[in-house]
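Renewal narrative, Specific Aim 1. Our central claim is that a sequence can be written position by position from structural information alone. The example that follows is taken directly from our test logs and has not been curated for this report. It begins with the structure tokens describing the chain, in the order in which they were read.
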């Protein structure tokens, strides 16, 4: 198994080291992992100005020299709102990433779902804005994979969508050659299903989706998140007859 969504201190929301994440992946018997640090551009986002690309690639090289014989260490990025940053996205595509993960974290006035929740924005209004952003992101293309398709449920603890809008987004992604991710952080947050939920995985399959990636979105070297939940994600892929796409 390869964990295609791992963070380290190059992301603004953790201080974990790449080396520790690699050691844990090895201890858990993984074939490899991909460091997908947050690249946030909007000034209102948590990670604005944080991303140190040169430091990141230097640390990837150092970890490859330490563990490269036993572990596949992929370089990736979790690029926030690619639909709003075409110039930066085009630049990202010139960098030596193995894997570009696109995500929508900030919307409805550049806010993260917990802020929207705190501000009293209803689930209906929030999801309306979120799916519209996801539709724009799917139409924009330019990434390999879409992270945590139904992310707001992590905070709102409910999921709302219409089948028509979900199908439109999923079909656009498939047309663009973009796969979706089975993000197992939902299991770690007490859900019985991943991001996205089973019903959305089924719709993806119905729309012609064939492949996914699987990632824990692990921000800390937590044995449970890698060893346990990653395997659950692989099981989900198999349950829906979806192949896990490889980038190595
Ligand atoms: Zn994310
Ligand atoms: Zn992430």
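The sequence written for that structure reads:
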């Amino acid at each position: 198994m390869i964990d295609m969504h791992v963070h380290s201190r190059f992301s603004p929301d953790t201080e974990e080291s790449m080396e520790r994440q690699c050691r844990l992946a090895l201890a858990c018997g993984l074939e490899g992992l991909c460091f997908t640090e947050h690249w946030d551009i909007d000034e209102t986002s948590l990670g604005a100005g944080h991303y140190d690309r040169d430091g990141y690639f230097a640390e990837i090289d150092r970890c490859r020299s330490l563990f490269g014989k036993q572990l596949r260490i992929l370089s990736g990025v979790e690029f926030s709102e690619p639909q709003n940053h075409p110039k930066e996205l085009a630049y990202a595509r010139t960098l030596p990433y193995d894997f570009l993960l696109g995500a929508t974290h900030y919307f409805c006035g550049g806010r993260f779902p917990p802020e929207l929740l705190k501000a009293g924005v209803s689930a209906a209004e929030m999801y309306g804005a979120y799916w519209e952003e996801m539709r724009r992101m799917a139409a924009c293309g330019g990434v390999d994979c879409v992270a945590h398709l139904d992310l707001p449920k992590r905070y709102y603890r409910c999921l709302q969508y219409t089948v028509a809008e979900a199908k439109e987004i999923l079909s656009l992604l498939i047309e663009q050659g973009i796969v979706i991710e089975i993000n197992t952080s939902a299991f770690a947050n007490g859900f019985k299903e991943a991001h996205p939920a089973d019903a959305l995985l089924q719709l993806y399959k119905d729309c012609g989706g064939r492949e996914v990636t699987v990632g824990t979105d692990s921000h800390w070297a937590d044995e449970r998140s890698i060893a346990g939940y990653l395997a659950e994600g692989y099981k989900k892929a198999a349950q829906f007859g979806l192949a896990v796409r490889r980038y190595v």
